[in-house]
Amino acid sequence: MSSLRLEVASGASAGRVFDAELDIVRIGRAPQNELVLSDALISSEHARIVSSADGFVLEDLGSTNGTWLLRAGEQHVLGEGRRAIALSPGDRLLLGGPEADGIELRVEFGPDTDTLEIALVRPLSELGKNAPLAAGDDRLQSLVQALREVVSHEGLSEVARGIADASLLLVPRATHATVVLRQEPESAQSNASGKSVGFVPVVTRVRGPSGPRAPEAAVRVTRSIVRKVISERAAVLAADAPSEAFSSESLLGASIRSTIGVPLWKDEAILGVLQLDNRDAPAMFEARDVDALGVLAVSASLAIANAELIQRLSLARAELKKENQYLRGRERARSAEVRIIGKSKAMAELFLQQLDKVADTRVSVLIEGETGVGKELVASSVHYRSKRKDKLFVAQNCAAFPENLLESELFGHKRGAFTGATDEKKGLFEIADGGTLFLDELGELPLSLQAKLLRALQEGEVRPIGATQSKQVNVRIVAATNKNLETEVKAGRFREDLYYRLKVFPLRVPPLRERRDDIAPLAVFFLDRYTREMGKSILGFAQETLEILSAYDFPGNVRELENEVQRLVIQADDGAFLTPELLSPRVRQIETVLLSAGAAKGSLKDMVDQVERHILIEALREHGNNKTAAAKTLGITREGLHKKLKQLGVG
Fold first, then answer.
1. Residue 544 contacts residue 513 (beta carbons within 8 Å)
2. Quick one: which of 78, 182, 569, 590 is 20 to 30 A from 387 by CA?
């Protein structure tokens, strides 16, 4: 089988030739790709080429601008319906656009660098049946020990490592053992045939003084052996032979380096290949080495199949658990949607003039407002008024986790990606795929995660921690903050590009002091909730109590009002009204202001006007009628003070 060569024919890297000596070649703008193309049309991780049993397969990784393949005058598009296609010599790849719009790569297959002579082929049907192991054979004890090593693990990576270690134990002449496993497609649509994209080395172990260990540098597998094992469905013993011809008999007797490839299988499917070789000194394996590994492969194949099944079940269980959690939350949010209390002019403007217009678009929404104004409730309203309402609404407080855990929560992680990552985990971006992800307290997001969030917004893809490739997601971002992000940008604590990407359509939720008409209805709503919850029968609010609540500024907004009403319900007796003396001292301070202002009983607006008039007059008197100084003390502009004085009729 030949090796792959890529020639960049256009774009910034035109003229560059890349000889693919790896089993996976990733192509994109990001520096971690094997073939880096800096052109703007190329996505961070645009495509990859995977070595397969029959050659090489091109796979689009959900690129923004697409991937095309030209072959014999025909054009093949890789996209939603088809993500992968087998490559042939002479193919032309167009990344980022069709014809002249894209970056062209020319595909050639060079001569294979592996010069191997096949010494022995043992069909799959014979593996495990011809092992010359008798009671006196030392290998019997080694085999038992090797089988124990294999079955003592559950996780796929641990099982693969156990198989490699067991094979080194069973074949003393071997110095290197590599397990190559089938690479599953990204989705059911990735490959029209339903076959795997390719076979990828997942673990290599080398013989050390105190036992098997990880290699200090990357170890290449002999790809021709892997292909031979897969194509012939057989165990293969081959030698690294010189150019002159050898017969199988002479190979078995020669003092040259050799390689064994043994299939791992389940029913008719090849799951992977176990490859052993000796790279330190000339050493030829024997037929009984192949047979001993065949016995090991029977149990190893079952262990791999079980580990893959356990991994799929664990992922499905975790996904179902999270989806169940969010489905329950969605129903609670749906029922809460009709309970957004707000009849004031400010709330009517928010919902009718702004929220309804943006709900059915795809743009990101930034909700601004003080703590406790109900930003999450507004975010859920954006979701449930949109076409995404049948998908998940997922909420995450960015201040609730430290940076490393928040990254895992949002983007997910692979098993073993960090200490404590015992299982693979889906991130909230994947869980919310097709729906809405609400990021509360966005101003607390660390700068390092801001970069990943920007990538998710721009490219529509996320990469779990420890993963080698990104995943496409279709998520609408609704974010909320109680900080001034423009100030945070100037201070260098928030990325400017992310700020403008999010602030496509800002929504400002007004604080309670700007919508005092909503305080009484909200108080009645919370009273009804907590009387039912506590099983109390309370007659309602005394008129004076509602007047004091409506005159209070509530710096904690709706959350503070809710807590105040809950405290009132706890203190009140059954069959009684909620009277002013039950209010907390901080709220009752407004009662003192009303008395000092000499506010006569009347409508709420009249009483508030009297209090404001009293405060303005006192401020002017205190500053000797200096309006600039009085305005500064009151925290308003001089023009604002003039407007208030005119509005209240103060000369």
1. no
2. 78
